[in-house]
Amino acid sequence: MVGAATAIGLAQLGLSIAVVESRQPQAYDPDQPIDVRVSAISVASENLLARLGALDSLWQMRSVPYRGLETWEMDGFITQFAAQQLNMSHLGHIVENRLVQLALWQQFCQYDNLHCYCPAKVARLVRATNGIEVSLDNGQVLDARLLVGADGANSMVRQWAGIGVTGWDYRQACMLINIATEADEQDVTWQQFTPKGPRSLLPLPGKNASLVWYDDAHTIRDLMQLSNKQLKQAIDQHFPERLDRNFEVVERGSFPLTRRHAKQYHKDHLVILGDAAHTINPLAGQGVNLGFKDVDALIQVIAAAQQSEHHWWSKPVLQQYQRKRWFDNQLMMTGMDLFYAGFSNDLLPLKLVRNVGLKLANYNNPVKQQVLKYALGLQ
Ligand SMILES: Cc1cc2nc3c(=O)[nH]c(=O)nc-3n(C[C@H](O)[C@H](O)[C@H](O)COP(=O)(O)OP(=O)(O)OC[C@H]3O[C@@H](n4cnc5c(N)ncnc54)[C@H](O)[C@@H]3O)c2cc1C
User: Fold this and answer.
1) How many CA atoms lie within 13 Å of 291's alpha carbon, on the beta-carbon side?
2) Nearest residue to 237 (alpha-carbon basis) of 196, 182, 283, 206
3) pLDDT higher than 70, residue 354
4) Closest CA to 235 of 275, 179, 291, 288
5) Can you list the domains of the chain with their CATH numbers?
6) Between 334 and 238, whose confidence is greater?
7) Which residue of 51, 267, 329, 355 has the smallest Cβ count within 10 Å?
8) What is the mean pLDDT of residues 329-333?
């Protein structure tokens, strides 16, 4: 998602672009079951996708808008955010990651200066006099003035460049479970905190939803072994009453929770974005939204450099990109960690404080509106 978006943004600036991707995304068919890998895409990300020409293609496939966001621990102490509070029609959309990628890929053919190498893997990188030589596993060799590493959490580009990371594993995992509901399409995403981790629901298109179950890694491993019927019983026991019990389990997947932040986002002729630069707790659904903010920042600084005396790939330009993004990403990651740690215990005094906090946070005031705007990437 992040790499494809960067490629189009830089192609729009007239640069000659090569996209290298090891896995061909499966073409869309409306009869396909909904993928488990879905993301809550914020309004700011939608704006970027629109500028890249991909938003209409995305809407022509499938997605669902969400208009409300609710979180609580103890019943009666709930914080609710609603699109109307910002006079907006919606807060964002839930979409399958693959469809975001496909919508972007459909734009590739608009650009004669963009070539896609897929399926092809980056096999070897070598520094050249004025750039980086990229050898693919199919034998082709590309010369890059700037290598953009948007190759995910285990970024080969980041490791090859020797860019260190800070971070840890949360010793927790999360399970994504697609369910078919009897209730009609929903438009509120909710999350209840428990000391073992949050239990959440994301609406999916039609009579479907995605449940997210955070727990210790052993529990998630055990849950993954259950039949659909057994898993439904476990969900019935462990999810809040808010979940309508008239549903069937359709699909599931599990993911470890990790936090990684690259110490720097650039080296000579090389820059990293998206999960290659930062992997955040998925708690608040910010991962790819932060990645899209990186894309926006990189496009802006390169566009500005084209109008200035700096080479667009030079160190001062890449430093500007890092300045725009590193602190913002760090702030969001730390915020999520504090939230996560704050709710991961059952100590009564703390429980009371945080629940009163949630209740107070629910009053509509300018601070609440600022928090919502920040979460939506609107500032
Ligand atoms: C459980 C869970 C729920 C989440 N929910 C949300 C959410 O609601 N909202 C949100 O914003 N984010 C969410 N995220 C985070 C989001 O999924 C990631 O931030 C996002 O996928 C990162 O996108 P990316 O393009 O940077 O990396 P990736 O999606 O990992 O893409 C990297 C690409 O690089 C390719 N690649 C890697 N190495 C090579 C190589 N050597 N050669 C060629 N190609 C290569 C891979 O094939 C892949 O296509 C969630 C994450 C998890 C785990």
Assistant:
1) 31
2) 196
3) no
4) 179
5) 2-66+91-166+259-375 (3.50.50.60), 170-257 (3.30.9.10)
6) 238
7) 51
8) 92
